Amino acid sequence: MTTMNVKRWLLWVCLALLFISQVLLFRANQRATAAQSDARDAREQASLLQNKIDELNSSSVATLNLDNARLRSQNQELATKMARANNDLTQLMLAKQKTEGQLQTARQALQLQQDHLQQLTAENQQVQTAATPPAAPAAPELSADDARELCLQNLRAIDAAKQLWALEYNKDAKDMPTPQDLLPYLKGNVMPVCPAGGTYLIGSMDQPPICSVPGHVMP
User: Fold this and answer.
1) In whole numbers, what is the pLDDT of the chain averaged over residues?
2) How far apart are CA 26 and CA 14, in angstroms?
3) Are 193 and 153 in contact (CB under 8 A)?
4) Residue 139: its pLDDT value, please?
5) Per-residue model confidence (pLDDT) at position 40
6) How far apart are alpha carbons 182 and 192 in whole angstroms?
7) Under 8 Å between Cβ of 186 and 146
């Protein structure tokens, strides 16, 4: 009888242990399932996060490439503008040097012409002095041909002064200088005077200077 009771208690103990084991196994399975679900969610979140990181990296690279391309384009445009500006500056310097050379040549030509005119006037005065008797009260007047030649020399000097004035100040065909404008380009800074008493009309750049005396006209 005692043996039967012991066996019966052992059986209940085994059943209780089996039940407890089933309960613990069920809970462990639940925990494992929950852990697997959490792991799966974590993997999904990590995958989403990695995708976002990849998208950000791709976007950053694309933006950086776009910025670099824009900067290269701007640098190229700036280099082109600088090269064009340097070329324009070089052309302006060459044009300035050419203009200064032309102005210097024109000044020298005008000086030679004025020196020639002064020499011619002095020679005519010497001829008049030599031809005049010592007792004569006054020197004879210039002949019409001599007066005309001197007047033409004056007109050429005035025309040369006009060209120098226009060259130095970039004047066009319709501009008209005043006598004061031409004085710096004339011998002794003095406007020539017609030996026959004529009046000079300077005129615009597209017109030659003229004298009021008939026949005193530049060829």
Assistant:
1) 80
2) 18
3) no
4) 44
5) 84
6) 11
7) no
Comparing CA positions, the residue from 196, 193, 192 lying closest to residue 145 is: 196
Closest CA to 213 of 138, 130, 120, 145: 145
Backbone φ and ψ of 200, nearest 5°:
-90, 140
Mean pLDDT across 15-30:
79
What is the phi/psi pair of residue 118, to 5°?
Answer: -65, -40
CA dihedral (128, 130, 135, 140) in degrees, to 10, reads -10
Tell me the two tokens of residue 15. 């059943």
Q: Is the dihedral of CA 111, 117, 119, 125 positive or negative?
A: negative
Q: What is the mean pLDDT of residues 117-146?
A: 61
| Helix-helix angle 144-169:2-131, to 10 degrees | 170
Q: Kindly report the three-state secondary structure assignment for every residue of the chain.
A: CHHHHHHHHHHHHHHHHHHHHHHHHHHHHHHHHHHHHHHHHHHHHHHHHHHHHHHHHHHHHHHHHHHHHHHHHHHHHHHHHHHHHHHHHHHHHHHHHHHHHHHHHHHHHHHHHHHHHHHHHHHHHHHHHHHCCCCCCCCCCCCHHHHHHHHHHHHHHHHHHHHHHHHHHCCCCCCCCCHHHHHHHCHHHCCCCCCCCCCEECCCCCCCCEECCCCCCCC
The tokens for 98 are 């050419």
User: By the 8 A CB rule, do 105 and 141 touch?
Assistant: no
